[in-house]
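can u pls check wat happens w/ beta-D-galactopyranose
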Amino acid sequence: MGHRLAAATVLLLALVAGAAAAGEQAVGAGVEEAGKSAAWTGGLSRRSFPAGFVFGTAASAYQVEGMALKDGRGPSIWDAFVKIPGEIANNATADVTVDEYHRYKEDVDIMKRMGFDAYRFSISWSRIFPTGTGKVNWKGVAYYNRLINYMLKIGITPYANLYHYDLPEALEVQYGGLLNRKIVEAFADYAEFCFKTFGDRVKNWMTFNEPRVVAALGYDDGAFAPGRCTKCKAGNSATEPYIVAHHLILSHAAAAQIYRHKYQHVQKGRIGILLDFVWYEGLTNSTADQDAAQRSRDFHVGWFLHPIIYGEYPKSLQVIVKERLPRFTADEIQMVKGSIDYVGINQYTAYYVRDQQPNATTIPSYSSDWHAAFASSFLTFFAPLGAADERNGVPIGPRANSDWLYIVPWGLYKAVTYVKEKYGNPTMLLSENGMDDPGNVTVAQGVHDTARVAYYRSYITKLKEAIDDGANCVGYFAWSMLDNFEWKLGYTSRFGLVYVDFATLRRYPKASAYWFRDVVTGKN
Ligand code: GAL
């Protein structure tokens, strides 16, 4: 009920805002047939942004490539995880997904025709090293060479991310994967291989996508691979997320160090990391709730960005987590501090948050360490005592298809501004942003994505405001160009600017794709 109401609100907003014109788009029209403007741009155009600002779309290897177990690729922890019955909606896998492995030219062509400058893709570690280390799969190397070379030929700049949730399963089996310190060297070796092999053409590197999600969902609530937690078959939510996060930070820093020492001066690229950042707004103005919101921001983005900028974990983590929080040695601090040339912020949503101190029954875990309560499918397990998605009965925003995704454009402004103010205004990319529709919509329904058009218009307007107010954000990447494999939700969620018929794999640009074309080609 609440969901339907929310959807209606979005639709109404979209119509009022002028997105109705989207309905004029011929269903499934090819990009070249699209003569008209898709929808009102909201006054946004490339000219609204600083010179050189980059517009792109983002995706990840496991979600779009397919050929998951072919052409020599080794399995990742996600290939193992999706096989567990009940973990993924309809027990779906990404064995085929949208088959970008074969259709990359078509996909890069669509990007180009929509006017995008860049593609943020990820490299599958186990496609390069099927068992994580040692023997190279040259067919995998050849695939990324084809993809990169085609992008450059067409004029799409590659932004390559080395890790998007997909640890080689062999390392998980051999020594517990990210829980083992050995992962730092293994990742650094893999990263170096990529710099050496692709770095003559790839100038924008990212080490990890959302290390927080890897640590929290993989080891605190167990919703993502490898599915460990205190209540799971195996795991410890009080310690493992912190150990994994520590190893991820060191792995990132080790790779960045190699890049800077051996490759950067010749290849002239840059290296960074991609962090998810939900904006947390205090439920009330009480000091307790305001402090809870600050702790949430520390435990979320600060967990990673604080060590990278300042060389230590946020004070709130040090005080609360105590001896469960690993420490950096003096040498490690040197390596970690300042280990980014830029940072990607993945921003989708915002939650109200209120103070919730632990009591005798609280089971220690990363999430209960926040001493905060809020609402989200990802987080209710952590905060069983209460939802805080409403203030005085009013939701923080309408909800998309994903139950964690409330539409709150002002949250993006606050998140970007927070990074600017708290972390010395680093060079930023808004590296993911988007919303999903349900999976079971037809092509005819799917391409008329008025709610998505309204979402992008409102969020990008807020990004522009943050930049106008001084945030050093130099690029924006929509998630995602194509509908694709959405982790737990499998194919029951569609985040794309382009509808994919999962039976035929045919691509149909949605109104939002044409909307982007009008904004980034700046004709309005
Ligand atoms: C991000 C993630 C992506 C994508 C998106 C939508 O957190 O990096 O892989 O799935 O969320 O849920």
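Residues 240-267 form the longest helix (28 residues).
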